[in-house]
Design brief:
By secondary structure, the protein is an alpha+beta fold. It has eight helices and 19 strands. The longest helix has 18 residues.
Length: 435
């Protein structure tokens, strides 16, 4: 954090998890109300080790303690998930994975630390790459402040609330306590729907001790209006007062696009752009029954994977929504997160997935959340470059200048891969500068 931020209060931030434990972030600030200029850095770590074996929970925790935490001691979030990607032999690989989310200031030191973490993981566990997703278009607050824009025309936005469950002094917010709070405070203000994730949090307290606690994350989508803003702040105040909390982290993202059916959700720019799309699948079947784990995996294999073979990540969650009869439905759900080029073909594939799921399992809709403002890169191990003799280098530069229109293209696929384009002339010139 910047030197200007006085670390007087260590605010606890609890975050999401889908398929297991998560670890949360704690950041120190000089007031309860903070609107820090933070960005979100997300790192996806595959756990399969090529050749055999797996990065165990103990292995990853050790890596977290020794590599990530020293660089970002204030806190972070770890998601357990299940991923799949297409390897270099065109084989679909399914593996457990970890997603680490960190809220940091956007500066060269933090950016270098993120890169170093990726490099360390690649070398230690023989990985091809680590996917890095950067979101600079969020607003973060730890108390009650002007977090929302309230534009003159309504805009659908995403807001995440992170609730720590330890009660200072003694006790814990139980499952029953939290569900009662959800029913009595959150749901009446946002009846249309929300998603709740269980988590395990970790943050640095005022004595420099790492504190671990269970936590809850509530993810909501709603119109950016003064009324909804007031409801968010009312939720925050009631939770902090009722359970003696220092704060509740709020993260607002106003750059997402949201759809519940098939519509013009994508931009399809003239030049390809890598984007992120999340699909939320409810698992209750109206009239009785549930989309089982086997049912969903079969749907994933037969419908989703053929359209997006390069890779995806699936998270488990619990959701609730207001159905067409005005009844609040609570159900298990699946969140499939995909990264792909914003093209008409991929747009048609998303809509095909939505249509097939709603028809096959008698669903009213599938929530689609599109984010086109993310920076998606793949951290890979640098390859050593042998420097030719000066005479040969001049010849290469000449060839490079004549071949300026040609491109060297490296494409590696999925959550472990990268897309990188470098002109031959640019590569030659940069290499020559090192001679």
């Amino acid at each position: 954090m910047a030197n200007a931020i006085v670390k007087n209060i260590f605010t606890k931030i609890s975050t999401t998890v889908a398929t297991g434990a998560a670890i949360s972030i704690g950041i120190s600030f000089n007031a309860i109300k903070v609107e820090a200029a933070l960005i979100q850095q997300g790192l996806f770590f595959g756990r399969d080790i090529p050749g055999g074996g797996e990065v165990s929970e103990i292995d990853f925790q050790t890596f977290l303690n020794n590599v990530i935490t020293p660089r970002f001691p204030d806190g972070l979030t770890v998601f357990d998930a299940n991923g799949q990607f297409l390897d270099s032999t065109d084989t679909t690989i399914k593996e457990k994975s970890k997603y680490v989310s960190i809220f940091v200031e956007d500066n060269s030191i933090n950016n270098a630390s993120i890169y170093d973490i990726g490099q360390a993981y690649i070398k230690q566990f023989n990985q091809e790459s680590v996917l890095q997703v950067e979101n600079k278009n969020i607003k973060v607050s730890f108390g009650v402040g002007d977090l929302f824009s309230n534009p003159p025309t309504n805009k659908f936005i995403k807001t995440d609330l992170f609730f720590g469950r330890d009660i200072p002094g003694d006790g814990e917010v139980s499952e029953t306590d939290f569900q009662t709070f959800l029913n009595n405070v959150v749901t009446p203000s946002f009846p249309d729907g929300l998603t709740v994730f269980d988590a395990n949090g970790q943050f640095l307290d005022s004595t420099g001790t790492i504190i671990k606690e269970k936590s809850k994350n509530v993810s909501l989508f709603f119109d950016d209006t003064p009324k909804n803003q007031a409801s968010i702040y009312n939720t925050v105040n009631k939770y902090t007062n009722q359970f003696n909390q220092e704060s509740v982290l709020q993260v607002a993202d106003e750059d997402v696009k949201v759809s519940f059916g098939v519509g013009d959700l994508f931009n399809n720019p003239p030049t390809n752009k890598f984007i992120k799309t999340d699909l939320f699948f409810g698992r209750d079947i109206p009239g009785g029954g549930e989309v089982s784990e086997t049912d969903f995996q079969t749907f994933l294999n037969n419908v989703v994977t053929p359209s997006f073979p390069d890779g995806l990540t699936v998270f488990d969650a619990n959701g609730q929504f207001l159905d067409s009869t005005g009844t609040i439905i609570k159900e298990k759900s699946k969140n499939a997160s995909l990264f792909f080029d914003d093209t008409p073909k991929n747009q048609a594939s998303i809509y095909d997935i939505v249509n097939k799921y709603t028809q096959q399992f008698n669903q009213e809709s599938v929530l689609q959340v599109l984010d086109e403002s993310l920076n998606v890169t793949f951290i890979t191990e640098p390859k050593p470059i042998s420097v030719p003799e000066p005479a040969l280098m001049w010849g290469l530069i000449t060839l490079g200048v004549y071949g300026v229109g040609s491109m060297m293209k490296k494409k590696v696929i999925g959550a472990k891969h990268q897309r990188k384009y470098v002109s031959v002339a640019e590569w030659m010139l940069k290499t020559f500068e090192k001679v």
